[in-house]
Design brief:
By secondary structure, the protein is an alpha/beta fold. It has helices spanning about 5-10, 15-30, 45-55, 75-80, 95-105, 145-150, 170-185, 195-210, 210-224, and strands spanning about 35-40, 60-65, 85-90, 110-115, 120, 130-135, 155. Helix 4 links the parallel strand 2 and strand 3 (about 85-90).
């Protein structure tokens, strides 16, 4: 097993200095303190818009439950944002929800579920001093009772008009904007660890370099 920093250094020679500089600029603002969860989203443009917003607001991890609807992307909407994110997909049937929630809780996340009809925090005052995974349910019905039963807290976006809810992609974008802004104003250790930065540098290099598998094979051969 070759050391990650050595491989990163080797692969970095195959991209431009401008791209490497951009990686570092983005890493400074990336976070894993907030994660996004999606349950059974079925419209590709909504799914893709959420990914695009996650990238834009610096939220690295998106957890996708697919026990009813398969998650699909619209490249005209996502604009390639999925290759810069860490997507965890759970599609093992009825076990998908439990597997996702258990994975997040094992990593220290509190589960926050968006809901209009529960005693809820607003997005402005939901606690985020600990790591928080914010979940959005399906377009028509919202979160399932099963997901709601796993929640540590519920969250809503205050609305002042007759319409009861936002489109999911709009709700996700508004929520991510508010939470990412709050992270930077509050005394919270939200930035990536050095290990996380190396993990993402390697992921992004691999997603940038054509035929990277052959280049890595050459690196292994030279290192033996």
């Amino acid at each position: 097993m070759h050391q990650k920093p050595e491989l990163i250094t080797y692969l970095s020679a195959f991209v431009t200095e401008a791209r490497l500089k951009r990686f570092e600029e983005v890493l400074v603002n990336r976070t894993r303190h907030i994660a996004i969860g999606l349950e059974n989203i079925y419209q590709a443009h909504n799914a893709s818009a959420v990914l695009r917003s996650s990238d834009c607001f610096g939220i690295q991890d998106v957890h996708i439950i697919e026990n009813q609807n398969k998650y699909s992307f619209n490249p005209d909407v996502s604009l390639g944002s999925e290759k810069w994110l860490t997507l965890s997909r759970y599609n093992n049937g009825e076990q998908s929800l439990g597997t996702c929630i258990n994975t997040l809780k094992a990593k220290g996340y509190k589960i926050a579920v968006t809901s209009l009809h529960k005693d809820s925090y607003t997005i402005e005052n939901v606690p985020i001093t600990t790591k928080t995974a914010l979940f959005f349910g399906t377009e028509m019905r919202g979160a399932t009772p099963e997901l709601e039963s796993k929640a540590d807290m519920f969250v809503k976006i205050p609305m002042l008009g007759f319409t009861e809810s936002f489109n999911i992609s709009v709700a996700a974008a508004l929520s991510m904007y508010e939470l990412s802004s709050r992270l930077r104003k509050e005394n919270i250790n939200w930035q990536l660890s050095d290990a996380d930065k190396d993990e993402l540098r390697l992921q992004w290099l691999r997603n940038t370099i054509p035929k990277v598998e052959l280049i890595e094979k050459d690196f292994i051969g030279k290192s033996v």
